[in-house]
Structures are given as structure tokens and as C-alpha cells.
Amino acid sequence: MRIRLTSVFVDDQAKALRFYTEILGFAVKHDVPMGGEHRWLTVTSADEPDGTELLLEPAGHPAVKPYRDALVQDGIPLAQFAVDDVHAEYERLRALGVRFTQEPLEMGPVTTAVLDDTCGNLIQIATLPE
User: What is the full DSSP assignment across 22-81?
Assistant: First the structure.
């Protein structure tokens, strides 16, 4: 069993695509029209184009808004992405105007920071032990 695909609900797929590619640095894997305004839109790590895909999924289901609102209110990230150096990535992203809800925090061998993806989610970046 492997994780091949996971998703984040987004308010606006076009806005999410810009943020996740132009700001976070992911690369588009699939962009398939699904009829109407929605697309099957996935991104992957630019360093691992055949790795796990992240689906930028429309947040239209009625359960999504209260779920995400509760997570944001409690400061809980919806997803976590690994980075080589949280401090360097934090500085790079802040220079691009990204808003963080948690500055880099060292917890033993793990360092984390939490950012607002501008699409309704908090995302944690982390440097994890090998």
C-alpha cells in the first residue's frame, strides 16, 4: 500500500494553482477540465515529479467549510510538507508575502512553521529527522 494522491480543499482552483506553483514551488502534474468550472488539478514536488500528487480539490461540499473553519480557528494545519530547512523556507516565503500563523518552532529533532495558503487552509512545513 502506498500514498499516491492526497488532497487539500481550496476555495478557488486558479488562485490555489498560482500559490502552490508560483509561491510554494510545486509543479503541475495533471490539469484536466471536469466540466463546468472545476478541474482535476494535481501538483507534485518539482524535485519528485513522479512522487505523491496533491489534488487541489474544489471546496464545494457543505461539510468542507465548517471543517476547515474549525481547523483554522484552532490553528491546526490541514497538511504538512517536508522542507530541508524550515528557517530558510520561512524567510523565503515571508519575502514573497506569505502569512505565517506560527514562526519556526524547534521541538527536539523536528522544526515546524505554519502558513496560510490563501485558499482556506493552514499548511505546516517541517524539517524532519532522517
Answer: IIT--EEEEEEE-STT-EEEEEE-TT-TTS-EEEEEE--STTHHHHHHHHHHHT--SEEE
